[in-house]
Q: What sequence folds into this?
């Protein structure tokens, strides 16, 4: 019987396999436990050929997998506003699962829509040339004003108001010149300068007086607090390190206990050569396998905890050094600060204070003495410019002034022509590009707003929800699972996979569900081999036609792939078959001895084999022959297939 490369099944064998094993045990009992000489034919070593049902299959096991599953995430970040589903809830494709606060995103959409409307309006205006009447009027007014300025520049016909303004500018410039010559400081300016001198003198006197008692006291308090904090840090760090060491020792003891338990279970389930004491078909074999696997996992878990405890201890040692170093640094800083206060002001600080006092006194002296030669020169230049402007108004503009005024007229006329002229291809292209860019910006804003809504990508059940209203939306927020097409994935050896074809019937059972069974089919056979731990395997998927809520994803399923199945066939124990050339023979009692009968065999389930010819129902044969007469020793279970 072909077997899968996975763990043997714990239960679920067919009744005929069990009955065959019992019959074989009854046949072998006299021979194994000291019965007659095996060369002597007796009733206790024979069996009768009977008819029955025979199934050839491939056994295996795997876990239940869903048709599809997916971790769900928001495509944008934000604050969760609503969560509309809970764990275990069935949803349909497109159903809203959760939403973010999209107020800012909605505003962005409105802004993008407004920008698009504005760009479209500018494009229509460019296409139609529909300058507004007020725009035309303003442009015409600019032309008229430019022409008036040109005429004024040419003829020099300044108005009385223009001349009066220019004369006022000359009078103001003359007043500024007198202030520069006679001193420009006001009483308020002098008061401020004198206050600056007094402040600089007070600071210098304070530095020369030496350290103040209150500053020394404050620095001493800071130092005492830093030393007290250092002692507390040392105490806390030592406690944390000692606790981590205790946790590490406890974890080490747990590892030793788990290793002892694993060793005990190993020797209870394995022989000295490292083989399982029980065979896959023996009662209790799966229990031994489970005990051993559990012991291995316990030892691995204990080792993981020890590694974590050791890491925690190492971190505690490192943190102790860092915390103490930081606290010691604060003590040193406080000591330096205290020494600095005790020493008082440095020579450099006193020198700087003296320089500040000198500068303040110089500023005061300058205000009392009046403006400098540079101040007078600047005021004189302003007066000269004001007088030149007054002369210009009464005498007319220069050639350069006239040219500038003419240029303004030309520019105003050009602006008016632009409003009334048809659009150019370049103008249209610019406005069309602006509309296209605004459309893309609107689509992007709408997409960002839509991304604030999380929808189910397919129908299924929500298996986890890790967000709440008011919380952040980062990372995986939900998981959805589709149970509409459950399947089991097996890893078969290249020998077994050669026997399996698509749509073969598969008997399914689950150890955790005693009353559950189903019939699946082979739905997929990988065409490419994979190598796992040096073993060549092929992935095979088995469909599970069950919507029973008791059947959960991740459960272990025992599979029995039916290769062939026959009823009412002649059955012979595999132990009775002996090799003879390329065929098989059985031994039949014949008086005081035995004779060999050639048989043609069919399918086998590992315990019994179908006999196609050579024997009849009711024939008696030797159940456990010693050897074929002309083929040498065939072994206890000579070559059954």
A:
């Amino acid at each position: 019987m072909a077997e899968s490369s996975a763990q043997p099944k714990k239960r679920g064998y067919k009744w005929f396999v069990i009955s065959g094993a019992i019959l074989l045990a009854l046949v072998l009992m006299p021979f194994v436990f000291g019965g007659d000489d095996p060369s002597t034919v007796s009733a206790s070593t024979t069996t009768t050929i009977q008819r029955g049902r025979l199934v050839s299959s491939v056994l295996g096991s795997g876990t239940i997998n869903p048709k599809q599953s997916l971790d769900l995430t928001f495509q944008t970040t934000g604050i969760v506003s609503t969560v509309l589903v809970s764990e275990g809830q069935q949803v349909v494709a497109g159903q809203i699962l959760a939403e973010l606060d999209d107020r800012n995103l909605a505003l962005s959409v409105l802004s993008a829509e407004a920008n698009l409307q504005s760009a479209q309006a500018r494009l229509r205006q460019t296409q139609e040339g529909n300058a507004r009447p007020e725009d035309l009027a303003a442009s015409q007014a600019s032309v008229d004003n430019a022409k008036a300025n040109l005429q004024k520049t040419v003829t020099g016909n300044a108005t009385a108001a223009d001349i009066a303004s220019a004369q006022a500018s000359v009078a103001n410039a003359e007043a500024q010149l007198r202030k520069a010559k006679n001193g420009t400081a006001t009483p308020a300016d002098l008061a401020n300068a004198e206050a600056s001198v007094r402040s600089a003198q007070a600071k210098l006197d304070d530095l020369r007086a030496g350290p103040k008692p209150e500053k020394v006291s404050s620095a001493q308090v800071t130092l005492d607090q830093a030393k007290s904090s250092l002692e507390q840090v040392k105490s806390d760090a030592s406690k944390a390190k000692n606790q981590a060491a205790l946790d590490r020792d406890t974890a080490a003891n747990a590892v030793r206990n788990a290793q002892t338990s694993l060793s005990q279970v190993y020797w209870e389930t394995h022989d000295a050569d490292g083989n399982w004491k029980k065979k896959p078909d023996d009662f209790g074999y799966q229990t031994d396998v489970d005990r051993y696997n559990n012991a291995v996992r316990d030892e691995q878990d204990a080792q993981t905890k020890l590694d974590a405890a050791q890491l925690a201890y190492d971190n505690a040692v490192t943190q102790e050094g860092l915390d103490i170093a930081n606290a010691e640094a604060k003590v040193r800083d406080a000591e330096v600060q205290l020494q600095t206060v005790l020493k008082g002001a440095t020579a450099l600080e006193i020198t700087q204070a003296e320089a500040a006092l000198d500068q303040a006194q110089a500023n005061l002296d300058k205000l009392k003495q009046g403006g400098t030669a540079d101040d007078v020169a600047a005021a004189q230049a302003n007066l000269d410019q004001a007088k030149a402007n007054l002369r210009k108004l009464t005498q007319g503009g220069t050639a350069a002034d006239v040219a500038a005024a003419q240029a303004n007229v030309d520019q105003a006329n050009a602006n008016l022509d632009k409003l009334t002229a048809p659009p150019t291809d370049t103008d249209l292209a610019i406005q069309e590009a602006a509309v296209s860019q605004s459309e893309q910006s609107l689509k992007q804003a709408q997409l960002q707003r839509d991304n604030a809504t999380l929808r189910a990508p397919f129908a299924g059940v929500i298996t986890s929800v890790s967000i709440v209203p008011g919380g952040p939306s980062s990372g995986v927020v939900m998981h959805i699972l589709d149970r509409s097409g459950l399947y089991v994935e097996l890893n078969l050896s290249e020998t077994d996979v050669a026997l399996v074809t698509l749509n073969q019937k598969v008997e399914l059972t689950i150890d955790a569900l005693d009353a559950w069974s189903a019939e699946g089919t082979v739905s997929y056979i990988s065409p490419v081999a994979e190598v796992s731990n040096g073993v060549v395997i092929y992935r095979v998927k088995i469909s599970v036609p069950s919507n029973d809520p008791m059947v959960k994803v991740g459960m272990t399923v025992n599979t029995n792939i039916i290769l062939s199945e026959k009823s009412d066939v002649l059955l012979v124990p595999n132990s009775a078959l002996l090799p003879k050339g390329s065929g098989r023979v059985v031994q039949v009692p014949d008086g005081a001895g035995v004779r060999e009968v050639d048989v043609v065999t069919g399918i086998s389930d590992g315990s019994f084999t179908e006999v196609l010819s050579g024997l009849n129902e009711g024939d008696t044969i030797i159940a456990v022959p010693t050897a074929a007469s002309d083929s040498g020793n065939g072994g206890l279970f000579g070559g059954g297939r």
